């Protein structure tokens, strides 16, 4: 049996979820990536990338069939980074497909079971494509059994929290006071929050990532592997 050492681990690909409120800059973060990048768009929100010259596929029309065609294309493409914008809308496609298969309201349990299984397989498939994969996602507020309010990705069903285990990094975007700025730059600065503060369920699998990071995905990948 061969014994390996963790110091010999070579850089690999990452998958990152960015879940935050609308207008916080989730889509704009794609501009910070280096290497050939493809955006899979379902939100009609690509205007922030207009001057970046990034390739994209629009899935606003075509539904699940177009998503599957896109996945087939991506797997054999030379794109380094795949940016799904957004996972909330992709999850809705899987819900719609499950409802078509189980149209009877008495079939609620098998309908949600089919959705959970098929959407979970999709997340695992994208994770294992051998590319850097990024997902934007909206947020929703939930309450624990004890009445504590917190935020999770806006994904239908119980996958909102369970799916977090499939990601290497889960970030939200916070606006922090920028005391070092001057003039127009003084005030607030948007940053990635990378840690679980009890309100947002964030995480990182690298101890090289700070609790708050500049919104630069390429720098975060570099820090994690160096």
Explained architecture:
The protein has helices at residues 63-75, 87-101, 108-127, 159-162, 217-225, and strands spanning 15-19, 37-41, 55-58, 81-85, 132-137, 139-143, 149-153, 169-178, 187-193, 203-204, 212-213. The chain has 226 residues and is of the alpha/beta class. It has one domain: Rossmann fold (3-Layer(aba) Sandwich). The strands form 2 sheets. Strands 1, 2, 3, 4, 5, 8, 9, 10 and 11 form a 9-stranded mixed β-sheet that branches. α2 (87-101) packs across α3. The two termini are 29 Å apart. The mean pLDDT is 88.
Summary of the model, kept short:
By secondary structure, the protein is of the alpha/beta class. The protein has 5 helices and 11 strands; from the N terminus they run βββαβααβββαββββα.
Secondary structure elements and pairings:
Elements: E1 15-19, E2 37-41, E3 55-58, H1 63-75, E4 81-85, H2 87-101, H3 108-127, E5 132-137, E6 139-143, E7 149-153, H4 159-162, E8 169-178, E9 187-193, E10 203-204, E11 212-213, H5 217-225
Parallel strand pairs: 1-5, 1-8, 2-3, 2-4, 4-5
Antiparallel strand pairs: 6-7, 8-9, 8-10, 9-11
Helix pairs in contact: 2-3
- State the share of residues found in helices, binned by percent: 25-40%
The number of distinct structural domains comes to 1
What share of residues are in beta strands? 15-25%
The chain-level structural class is alpha/beta
Distance between the amino and carboxyl termini? 29 Å
In DSSP terms (H or I, runs of 4 or more residues), the helix count works out at: 5
User: What is the element string, with H for helices and E for strands?
Assistant: EEEHEHHEEEHEEEEH
């Amino acid at each position: 049996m061969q014994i390996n050492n963790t110091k010999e681990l070579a850089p690999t690909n990452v998958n990152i979820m960015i879940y935050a409120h609308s207008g916080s800059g989730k889509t704009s973060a794609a501009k910070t990536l280096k290497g050939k990048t493809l955006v899979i768009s379902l939100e009609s929100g690509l205007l922030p990338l207009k001057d970046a010259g990034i390739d994209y596929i629009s899935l606003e029309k075509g539904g699940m069939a177009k998503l599957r065609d896109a996945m087939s294309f991506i797997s054999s493409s030379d794109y380094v980074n795949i940016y799904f914008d957004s996972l909330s809308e992709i999850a809705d496609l899987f819900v719609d497909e499950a409802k078509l298969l189980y149209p009877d309201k008495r079939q609620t349990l098998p309908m949600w079971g089919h959705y959970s299984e098929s959407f979970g397989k999709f997340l695992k498939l994208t994770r294992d494509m051998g590319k850097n994969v990024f997902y934007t996602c909206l947020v929703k507020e939930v309450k624990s059994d004890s009445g504590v309010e917190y935020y999770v990705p806006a994904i239908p069903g119980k996958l909102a929290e369970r799916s977090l285990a499939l990601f290497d990094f889960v970030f939200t975007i916070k606006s922090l006071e920028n005391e070092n700025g001057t003039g127009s730059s003084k005030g607030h600065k948007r940053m990635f929050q990378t840690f679980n503060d009890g309100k947002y369920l964030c995480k990182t699998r690298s101890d090289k990532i700070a609790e708050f990071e500049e919104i630069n995905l390429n720098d975060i990948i570099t820090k994690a592997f160096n």
